[in-house]
Amino acid sequence: MTGIFVYSDQVSLACELAGFGKSAGAETHVVTTDEAAATELKSCGADVVHVLRGGDNPPPEAFAGAIAELLKGAAAELFLVGATVRGRELAASVAGLLDWGMASDVSGLSYSGGTLAIERLVYGGAVVQRETLPAPAVATVPAGLCEPANGSATVEIADVVPDSRVQVVGTEPIVRQGTSLAEAERIVSVGMGFNQREDLSLAEDLAAALGAEVGCSRGVAEEREWLPADRYIGISGLSVKPQLYLAVGLSGQVQHVVGIRETKVVVAVNKDEKAPIFKVCDYGIVGDLYTVLPQLTQAFN
Ligand SMILES: Cc1cc2nc3c(=O)[nH]c(=O)nc-3n(C[C@H](O)[C@H](O)[C@H](O)COP(=O)(O)OP(=O)(O)OC[C@H]3O[C@@H](n4cnc5c(N)ncnc54)[C@H](O)[C@@H]3O)c2cc1C
């Protein structure tokens, strides 16, 4: 067997995965279905960039069969896929077609001697599960786990036939607010301790004073629908790694705090001194957010 193959519909994530392949000392191949992305992909640590061309811009999932053929033909060792919505779908299809083992959404990975060692968070993030998979295997990997590298890859273009059963029947833009939380240096995160949507302006004012983005707990996004779903943090939401995470009116349940593990400094504001967030924060303010936030905003303005 030879070579680590990687894919992501996000170029930056594909580059991170290519960096992992290079650091593992393996011949590294990036697969893309987007010819325009090849220019960027060829300079981030891979040896070869495979551009799979097929028809009128079909979705990546339609290339599962073609990618499986490519991996089989090259006797690939690993197929690492960026853990995006599309990537997860594609990875599962490829693993199924090749009958390879698969680990989804790993939180850590290493590869040597034909064995992929991974970590995954289970039981809502309360437990880290360690597993080893013999190569060949597939894993989906979220952004931020691997470092991109430098290099100059050769580009190989192949015309393939995508699966015509997978088609895009319509598109709708996602309306995003602010910059991506995954890249934010500072986050003010709001929880169910806020009484009404309008009160989030207190957090927005503090965020503006700090140059921070506003995030939230799942309930704020999914139950109350006060913020978009791409703003919530935790095991089923985003993992973030800011320098500063200010959790306001947020209890700090394990499903939430698992998403802020990589944060440098966590500050909590909660009126309940027994709230679990005080066990994981670096600095805590026991107090009513309606009193504390205006004071903080004033102090930072
Ligand atoms: C399978 C599964 C997956 C999940 N995934 C996620 C996830 O990805 N992300 C996530 O966030 N949650 C997730 N949850 C939900 C999670 O378990 C918690 O229910 C949720 O995080 C709690 O949100 P919260 O802290 O905003 O609300 P609460 O737990 O209701 O906490 C509100 C806090 O606000 C404080 N408060 C109230 N009023 C004030 C005030 N005036 N001033 C100051 N403090 C005040 C209270 O003391 C309390 O601590 C998941 C749950 C399950 C079962």
Which descriptors would you attach to this protein?
alpha/beta, 15 strands, Rossmann fold, binds flavin-adenine dinucleotide, 7-stranded parallel sheet, 301 residues, 5-stranded parallel sheet
Number of helices: 9
Q: What's the architecture of the largest domain in CATH terms?
A: 3-Layer(aba) Sandwich
Uncertain residue ranges: none
* Proportion in helices: 25-40%
Distance between the termini: 59 Å
Query: What's the story with the biggest beta sheet?
Result: 7 strands, parallel
- Overall pLDDT level: 94
The total tally of domains equals: 2
- Kindly name the structural category: alpha/beta
Alpha carbon gyration radius:
21 Å
β-strand percent reads 25-35%
The name CATH uses for the topology of the largest domain is Rossmann fold
- List the helices and strands in order: EHEHEHEHEEEEEEEHEHEHEHEH
CATH H-level superfamily of the largest domain: HUPs
What's the total number of strands?
15
The rough form would be described as elongated
Which ions, cofactors or small ligands are bound in this entry?
flavin-adenine dinucleotide
CATH class descriptor of the largest domain: Alpha Beta
Could you give the order of strands across the largest sheet?
Answer: 5-9-4-1-2-3-10
